Amino acid sequence: MTAATEALIRRYYAAFNVGDTAGMLACLADDVRHDLNQGDT
Fold it and tell me: Which residues, including other chains, have CB under 8 Å from residue 8's CB and lie 6 or more apart?
């Protein structure tokens, strides 16, 4: 894993842990699709 990849993952989870949806989305590509365990996208 590169340092940049690790930093991206850490930023994503830091945003997740504080409920920062915008911060989480800022870490993702525009075409990411998130399928929830309950079945919705």
Answer: 27
Q: What is the pTM of this model?
A: 0.75
Q: What percentage of the chain reaches a pLDDT higher than 70?
A: 95
Instruction: Tell me the C-alpha distance between 14 and 6, whole Å.
Output: 12
User: Which domain does 2 fall in, by range?
Assistant: 1-30
Question: How many domains, the chain?
Answer: 1
Q: Quote the pLDDT of residue 41.
A: 65
Cα gap 12→26, rounded to integer Å: 8
